[in-house]
Amino acid sequence: MTIPTFTLGQLAERLDATLRGDPEKVIGGLATLQEAEPHQLSFLANPQYRKYLAVTKAGAVLLAPTDADAYAGDALLVANPYLAYAQLSHLFDRKPQATAGQVHPTAVIAADAVVDPAASVGAYAVIESGAQIASGTTIGAHCFIGARTIIGEGGWLAPRVTLFHDVKIGKRVVIQSGAVIGGEGFGFANEKGIWQKIAQIGGVTLGDDVEVGSNTTIDRGALADTLIGNGVKLDNQIMIAHNVQVGDHTAMAACVGISGSTKIGKHCMLAGGVGLVGHIDICDGVFITGMTMVTRSITEPGAYSSGTAMQPAAEWKKSVARIRQLDDMARRLQQMEKRLAAVTPAGDASSDA
Question: What is the largest CA-CA distance in the chain?
Fold first, then answer.
């Protein structure tokens, strides 16, 4: 595949950036400050990488105006260099593109499934009865689309995505390989020590512009649908249980686990390895740091953490030993307070200044 090229002037116009340098310089790719070659564009978004501005070989750099004096070469000055990098990254994306309207001869499509003429279907994909695939959608090789499932316009499913029956996918949704959406939720009733399965008769609804990472699972609802809002971004290997609701534009990093019937608000961020118990509510605008275990509802926006941070093993062992002693220390403190109260005369003002 031929890598496209653009002049700095063209890139500046696309970004509405201030150009400093040669507008005719040709750019043929993106790279980090450390690895960039003279034909590539780089960016500075994290202050800890500012030291590389003096040694980078990049042909030009995306910079915030406040960093302009730290770099002598050609530059595109923008308010948010990382956002500008994100916007330009699509110009140099080498991901193979399916041909609209192409259906591989090995694909198995039910007679009453509706596949738009402008959609594409890869090798060995299966599309079951009543499914609807909208215009501009790409179905990768070995994907499974269950009965009555609906995929909106402009969707992109990587190879080996599984969508069970009665799943509703919005517009421009990206789903990476190995994701399973609409599998049965973990629902059982216990009778005298024996687990009886509960049929999961709800579905899953994903809003527009959602991205689902590789090997992430979203279970179908027990009665109502599991709901994922518009613009939600899910990393790899996330587990979302039945009847969970996730608000618009919330993002989750890898290995988050969410128990059933939990509701998460809009514009939240969950870092890697966060766990949430079931049947709790998380309000809008919450940031939860990595490996936090959330055991109760959060009603105020802000950052929340739990657990202990890394420390040398010997120090950690001492800390754990102290934690194990806390219950005994608390009981001894209560006993001391009772004894003190017993020997202190009522109305004693000796402690007053």
Answer: 93
Residues 3, 59: Cα–Cα separation, whole Å: 16
**Alpha-carbon gap, residue 191 to 111, rounded angstroms:** 43
* Separation between Cα atoms, residue 9 and residue 21, nearest integer Å: 9
Measured CA distances, 187 to 103, 147, 174, 255 (Å)? 38, 22, 28, 21
CB 156 within 8 A of CB 174: yes
Contacts of 85 (CB under 8 A, 6+ apart): 30, 43, 45, 62
Task: Please state, as a whole number, how many other Cβ atoms lie within 10 Å of the Cβ of residue 225.
Answer: 19
Q: Report which of 65, 85, 54 is spatially closest to residue 19, judged by C-alpha positions.
A: 65
Say how far apart CA 264 and CA 281 lie, in whole Å.
6
Contacts of 270 (CB under 8 A, 6+ apart): 250, 251, 252, 253, 256, 264, 288
Instruction: Confirm whether 39 is a catalytic residue.
Output: no
Are 229 and 244 spatial neighbours (Cβ–Cβ below 8 Å)?
no
Calpha distance 312→3 (Å, rounded): 47
Instruction: Give per-residue pLDDT as tens, 163-189.
Output: 999 999 999 999 999 999 999 999 999
Show contacts of 61-70: CB within 8 Å, 24+ apart: 61/33, 62/17, 62/88, 65/18, 68/20
Position 56: which residue type? Answer: T
Collect all residues with Cβ–Cβ distance below 8 Å to 146 and sequence separation of at least 6. 128, 131, 163, 164, 165, 166, 167, 182
Q: What are phi and psi of 260, to 5 degrees?
A: -60, 145
Cβ atoms of 88 and 76 closer than 8 Å: no
Q: State pLDDT tens for residues 270-287.
A: 999 999 999 999 999 999
Catalytic site residue from 165, 242, 267, 279: 242
Cα gap 152→134, rounded to integer Å: 5
Q: What is the pLDDT of residue 3?
A: 78
d(CA 252, CA 247): 12
